[in-house]
UniProtKB/TrEMBL annotation:
UniProt family annotation: Belongs to the 'phage' integrase family.
Coiled coil (UniProt feature): none
Domain of life of the native organism: Bacteria
CDD domains membership: DNA_BRE_C
Keywords assigned by UniProt, alphabetized: DNA integration, DNA recombination, DNA-binding, Plasmid
Residue intervals passing through the bilayer: none
Pfam families in alphabetical order: Phage_integrase (PF00589)
Domain Tyr recombinase: 1-182
Taxonomic lineage of the native organism: Bacteria, Pseudomonadati, Pseudomonadota, Gammaproteobacteria, Alteromonadales
GO biological process: DNA integration; DNA recombination
Organism of derivation: Pseudoalteromonas carrageenovora IAM 12662
Protein name in the entry: Tyrosine recombinase XerD (C-terminal) -catalytic domain
């Protein structure tokens, strides 16, 4: 049975990890598997960037917004700076899952893609229609609504075609109406 201090440590450790996960999903547009496989070596903590292999093995670099970086650094203080997966399981004791290695490579094992989906489910997001992939779509939509170039968004998303990016960006009727009112007869 956990004592109060252990329970608080667990709650805080998981909460900080989970906040960093959600920040990276929505603040960097990562796919579930990209986040699950993310290694410490992929993160430039001083340059605020992540470079990783995305879908199809295509290397992608994404800037990390300062708010997202703050959440990530809070997790890194708990996780430590040892090479390995950025995200791992947290036990009831509040301790992080560590690998048992037979070849003296004591890397931190990664969180699975399914674990990230279950995390969203745990927080009630899935029942509200929000999945890790919808957080990725929100990233593209917000960039678009804030005036980002669609070619840049496409590159950030790791899409080989702008047509794919256009599917991700949700355009509301009020935005379409505003375009007519603001841009026609200027």
């Amino acid at each position: 049975m956990l004592n109060t201090i252990e329970a608080l440590a667990l709650t805080n450790t998981k909460k900080i990890r989970d906040q960093a996960i959600f920040h990276l999903l929505i603040g960097c547009g990562l796919r579930r598997f990209e986040l699950a496989k993310l290694k410490l070596s992929a993160i430039d903590l001083t340059g605020n960037k992540i470079t990783f292999d995305g879908k199809g093995g295509k290397e992608r670099t994404v800037a990390i917004h300062p708010i997202t970086m703050k959440a990530l650094k809070e997790w890194m203080v708990i996780r430590g700076y040892k090479e390995g997966a950025v995200f791992t399981r947290v036990y009831k004791s509040g301790e992080l899952h560590k690998s048992v290695s037979t070849n003296n490579i004591d890397e931190i094992p990664h969180f699975s893609s399914e674990s990230i989906y279950l995390l969203c489910k745990t927080y009630g997001l899935v029942s509200a229609g929000i999945t890790p992939h919808s957080l990725r779509r929100s990233y593209a939509t917000w960039l678009s609504r804030n005036g980002a170039n669609i070619q840049h968004i496409s590159k950030l998303m790791g899409h080989s075609s702008i047509k794919t990016t256009e599917i991700y960006i949700k355009t509301e009727q009020r935005e379409i109406d505003k375009t007519v009112l603001d841009k026609l007869f200027v």
